[in-house]
Amino acid sequence: MATVFLNGRLLRDDDPSASVSLSDAGFMHGVGLFETMTARRTEAGVRVMRVEEHVGRLVHSAKELGLASSLKAGPLAEAVEHTAQAHLDDAPYDAARVRLTVTGGDLNLVRREAERVGAGAQTPTVAILAQQATEYPQALYEQGGVLVIGDAKANPFDPTSGHKTLDYWWRLRELQNALGKGGTEALLFTVTNHVCGGSVSNVFVVKDDAVLTPIARGEESAIGGSGGVMPSPVLPGVTRAAVLEQAASMGLSVRKQWLTIDDVLDADEVFCTNASFGVLPMSRVEGKPIADGLVGQVTLRVRARMLEIDGD
């Protein structure tokens, strides 16, 4: 059973009220943003990992893309934590997957309100769904996963790229294709053939003990200098940011830079990150082993540090 928070009301997922209108902009046109988080029951209570960072990213994207200007990070974070608490209070497990979705709202209501006040009113739909977290097999972390090179390309000139929008179909198609070929994750590239990331994750490369990751949206000018900087379609992942911070605190050299397929194939280690599986080692790119095909020591150290700070 899942727990639902919908527009200010806490509901069970089998409650008929736990639904949105067929005229909702998210359903009709895929207009919306989402965040996926992990919540854990701890001795100090239920904790949603990096909730402020996740909600902050969504609110920033909502304003930048013109989805909604009325969203406030504080109340959204409180709603996420409240939903996670309510769910895990009665759950027979200690970890939950919590998804926050914000859409453009019911288009019929928006239209009627616009006619009433004479302006384009924004009434976003806010939905939070808490359910049991996915359990990944320990063998996957010990042996490493397999990357399959994807066919689709990320477009840096798409203004929604680098944001976590509801337009996830192309990514899920690439993931499904990778799984069908015996892979774990798809490796995606930009239209300029630079590494974008996984279909549902950020990608890290380890070379000569340096931890490298593609430049993400918002980081271009600081890294590439001023004038003529190519925009990045890479999502500035929340777990990615935490890994970069922890790797630097461990004394590892950390760099954000454009990467190519050769950087991946010639890497000493490769791992992917997201809020669900954390730090996931990769041991092969299709049929080619990464280095000796074993999970590397830097990846093991970074994963251990992340597990330590997340209390897992």
Q: What does this entry look like structurally?
A:
The chain has two domains: 3-132, Aminotransferase class 4, branched-chain amino acid transferase, N-terminal domain (D-amino Acid Aminotransferase, Chain A, domain 1); 138-310, Alpha-Beta Barrel (D-amino Acid Aminotransferase, Chain A, domain 2). Helix content is 33%, strand content 29%. A hairpin with a 2-residue loop joins strand 1 (3-6) and strand 2 (9-12). It starts with a strand and ends with a helix. It has helices at residues 25-29, 51-65, 73-89, 107-117, 138-143, 169-180, 220-224, 238-249, 261-265, 297-310; strands spanning 3-6, 9-12, 32-42, 45-48, 95-103, 125-132, 145-154, 185-190, 195-198, 202-207, 210-213, 253-256, 269-274, 278-285, 288-289. The chain is built from ten helices and 15 strands. The mean pLDDT is 93. It is α+β, with helices and mostly antiparallel strands and 312 residues long. Helix 2 (51-65) packs across helix 3 (73-89). The strands form two sheets. Strands 7, 8, 9, 10, 11, 12, 13, 14 and 15 form a nine-stranded mixed β-sheet that branches. Strands 2-1-6-5-3-4 form a six-stranded antiparallel β-sheet. The longest helix has 17 residues, at 73-89.
